[in-house]
Specification:
The protein contains 12 helices and 7 strands. By secondary structure, it is α/β, with parallel strands linked by helices. The chain has a 5-stranded parallel sheet with strand order 5-4-1-6-7, with helices on both faces. A two-stranded antiparallel sheet has the order 2-3.
Length: 272
């Protein structure tokens, strides 16, 4: 009887430990929660036909607008036409970095530097076709990215490896130390060229949207509504961007718990 009781106790103890272990595994750390919440965004970006369609749509629209603009220009008058594009999530795809973050549950923040050093980003749908078309029309192409200046050589290497035209030092402008936003670099291009189209996945890729609140960004979009699809082409990026920074009042120093709190507070739920 004593032996049976001992066996029963051992089985019960094992089951209890298994339950405790399972419960412990379901407790998610704030760091893991921050990454885990991005799962649906990354899945949509990587797997949905809709994401691909939006890139094709944006670049098809860009081609139509470019043709229209060039047809109305006097080739012998005025500065040379140029288009300006962001790189990350506009021309090249960095979503594997975000997917890796979710799967590995590595600590926040993302290790952009290691990813950039691999020079492994692939072109996004429609990007190369459009860029090669613009290049064939004699249009100057400038890439303005907020990657740090120290990553210029490796970024150009990545672009050249996938066949991006005009991927040269004088056409790729990276973020300088102490610089805020991209406006100074856009103005630099505008000194010698007429910027006829701009492409980006972030409102900060266009003039007039830097450091605005979430409500202010929407107000600015409404103000510039006639320019979208005509001069400004926007691509989808639910994974990251100034839209998220605006939720945190552009304060990158806040804690992970505070980020999670502000995310929930910014929701506009249905209340039955």
């Amino acid at each position: 009887m004593k032996k049976i009781t001992t066996i029963i106790f051992a089985v019960a103890l094992s089951l209890s430990l298994a339950v405790i272990s399972a419960c412990a595994q379901t407790v998610t750390s704030p760091t893991a929660s921050l990454a885990e919440q991005n799962t649906m965004s990354v899945l949509w970006y990587q797997t949905s036909g809709e994401a691909k369609a939006l890139y094709y749509q944006g670049y098809n629209l860009g081609k139509m607008r470019l043709d229209e603009i060039l047809s109305k220009r006097d080739k012998n008058k005025g500065p040379k036409p140029a288009i300006v594009l962001d790189l990350d999530e506009t021309v090249i795809d960095n979503s594997p970095l975000f997917a890796g973050k979710i799967v590995s549950r590595e600590k926040y923040p993302l290790n952009w530097s290691k990813w950039e050093d691999r020079a492994a980003a692939k072109p996004l749908p429609g990007a190369l076709e459009f860029l090669n078309y613009a290049d064939s029309k004699g249009v100057a192409i400038f890439y303005i990215t907020n990657r740090k200046e120290a990553k210029k050589a490796i970024t150009i290497k990545n672009l050249q490896a996938i066949g991006v035209p005009q991927a040269a030092s004088d056409h790729v402008f990276l973020k300088q130390k102490g610089e805020r936003g991209k406006e100074n670099r856009r103005l630099q291009v505008a000194k010698t060229h007429e910027i006829v189209l701009l492409f980006g996945d972030n409102l900060g890729d266009f003039s007039g949207f830097d450091e605005l609140s979430a409500a202010g960004r929407i107000e600015a979009v409404n103000k510039h509504k006639e320019e979208f699809g005509r001069k400004l082409i926007v691509f989808p990026n639910p994974m990251y961007g100034d839209w998220e920074g605006a939720i945190y009042n552009h304060d990158s120093s806040i804690s992970i718990n505070e980020r999670l709190k502000l995310r929930k507070e910014s929701l506009q739920p249905f209340q039955p």
